[in-house]
Amino acid sequence: MIEYRIHTIDPDRDLPTLNERILRLPDWRRRNTLSYIQPIDRLQSAIAYELLAGLLREYRNIQPGEFQIEYDCLGKPSIHNHPGLFISLGHCRKGVIAAIADSPVGCDIEVIQRPYELHGAAIADFCFNLNERRKILTATDPALMFTKLWTIKEAAFKLDNTLEIESIDTTVLPATQVISTVSTDYVSTVIAYGSDTGFRPDKHDAL
Hints:
By secondary structure, this protein is of the alpha+beta class. It has 2 domains: 106 residues, CATH 3.90.470.20; 89 residues, no CATH class.
């Protein structure tokens, strides 16, 4: 089982609701959210909690006041006292994503920044292998392809943060599910291990 939700941020619509959203948070999450200085960062934190709470309520019957996020020594989040439940959160200035699964899961969301030569090429030279860079450069929209591959790397790292992100090869990623969603401004990816073992390339969205 893997479920996820995405919220597209509209500052004109969402920022005026920030104080109300913060007041609805449980104390532990409110403290976390208020630790951020910038309103947009606080908004992302509040929305991430809302998305996660909605998923837990709908699919696990866990109510908003009945759970708390904890982090391991590497910063990986989990739900306290629910060892069989896995979560992941991600955000950027254009959107927020939350995912839950019954196996390890990772998600990421990134703004598409153009042109690729200015915003992505230097990162790709350091963190992407030859096949990945070739895939970007031969794509119709290199910036979009770069962002897709980068969200896959980040989601895989969140799934297993013992990995080194530059060593993750998105062309042979050992995940049973890779779900990438493209909007006008951002790309999001969710990755989860299934109950079977090995790779399932047929489950990888076409890039």
